[in-house]
Write a structure and sequence with these properties.
Length: about 350
Amino acid sequence: MRFSWSLTRSMTGYLLKKRLSGARKFPLVLMLEPLHACNLSCAGCGRIREYAETAADRLSIDECLASVDECGAPVVSVCGGEPLIYPGIEELVARIVERGKHVYLCTNGVLLEEKLGGFRPGNRLFVNVHLDAMETHHDIMVGRRGVFAQATAGIRAAKAAGFTVCTNTTFYRETDVHEIAVLLDYLTQLGVDGFLVSPAYGYEAVEQSDPEGAETIFMTRAEVEAKFREARPLLDRHRLMASPIYLDFLCGRRALPCAAWANPTRNVRGWKGPCYLITDAHYATYRDLVESTDWERLGPGRDPRCEHCLVHCGFEPAAVLAANRSVRDAIQMAFWQMA
């Protein structure tokens, strides 16, 4: 990302190596879910619904590390569930970093200030806090008062301790883009280093458990494009971690194929396939996932379940790969990195 030259160098070298080797499908980011238990019940979360029966299960630290080694992706997003309630999360993160990986520790921020002392700041660890709106609306979305205050207190503590901090914001149908601009202004004042944004996607686990709620909060593709066209001038004032190619895609200004294979998900049931959002099977190995999935049948216009999906786990990798193949896109990404 543009605030981390270490990550930029690592990813560039990795992509060059894969390109020279002739590899066609390879991972960029491993979505590692050591548990699905959480201390919140957010309206847009499918994990606590889809994996309710295994909420008490955990991957061991050794299983997590074996998955990191098996996959080989240069970036590991440690998510869930809420990873800060995972026993041994401090050791897990430290050992992944020791392997030369870049780690995004994705948290709702409730326990961040309390747990911060167990982690060591460095250029390979990014604390990624999920915030969807300013205080009143964010607390409504996560179903508990006081969460915004806890998360921002954790951000202040993390910045004071020298950590790199980013935030992840999901856009829903009811999201007010002007409120998001206020949120990013506020987080910039707190010293947040960069911002991830993505549209919410009404996937099966949420739609089946709460069809009325899903209809209320999730957008169609046309609605996503309209909202991001409205938001783009406001977002461009801030230090976005989403690439300009992906943002153009969200605004409907360019096409991208789905590259869900580049962001594999490992959880307590195995390697989730075909992607982070849709579950047809869980595989015993990463190789099984890649070789058993008919990737050409996935994506908008191919699988009806993908029709309105524009989320970054499927399309931001496609943007990165597009820049790796196109001189024009590579120049655009280079200017973005230096901006």
